[in-house]
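Support request, priority: normal
Reporter: lab tech (M.K.)
Component: structure prediction queue

Hi team, I submitted a job for ABC transporter ATP-binding protein from Pseudonocardia xishanensis yesterday, and the status page still shows it as pending. I've pasted the exact input below so you can check whether something in the sequence is tripping the parser. The sequence length should be 253 residues. Please let me know if I need to resubmit or if it's stuck on your end.
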Amino acid sequence: MTYGSGPTAVEAIRDVSFSIRPGEFVCIVGPSGCGKTTLLKSIAGLLRPTHGTALIQGRVVDGPPEQLALVFQEYTRSLLPWLTVRRNVELPLKARREKRDECASRTVDALHAVGLSGFEDKYPWQLSGGMQQRAAIARAIAYRPAVLLMDEPFASVDAQTRADLEDLLLRVQQETGVTVVFVTHDIDEAVYLGHRVIVLSGRPTVVRETVDVPMGWPRDQVATKADPRFVELRTHVLRQIHRERTEHPPQTH
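Reply from support: The job had stalled in the queue. We restarted it manually and it finished. Here are the results:
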């Protein structure tokens, strides 16, 4: 992905290639400004790569795929403030022209899954930040996507809420089998959540390494993060990111 042309062109992504298996949870990490969000938007069909293609289930992505959902970092901009939680969750289902009973059933199930039963008729501004992000996740779950893209979805909440949302997401992913591609700056979060961690280089971006996380399920915030294997993996990934920051400092244009 290159922005602009001529001497002022910015090569954001050079050569990034990887495959993700159905039902897999893959986290993407890399130095700040390396193009993680650009990559995610390319997969989502919101940006067209300068060269190359993204494919979902063997089909070239040339626009937002119907079987894909995207959860953003900024939940305050993701939820429509004039709609109740229930209406926010139902919104994409109505766009797909789902039957009314089906919309209602999926919405109830999704809100129950994220612990928001009883808050259906509240407005987003009446909820805490963590609850708003739960509502955004519920909307994605209710849509029942084959692939769920998440762009630093927990970066704007406090540490305890973040841990709760991580465990919520793991439980939902295990129950539904949805394929998750999760961008994060938090190395601990990436190792805790993922089956694999894809480490990107500094800009222009390439895949520096793919790290398998051979730890069992379910995972636990205390026991898993105290496991010597977890400590070894997060140290290895952190060392890779630190090396990229040192060898490829952020460029200004």
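The chain has two domains: 9-67+145-253, 80-144. The first strand starts at residue 2 and ends at 3. Let us know if anything else looks off. Ticket resolved.
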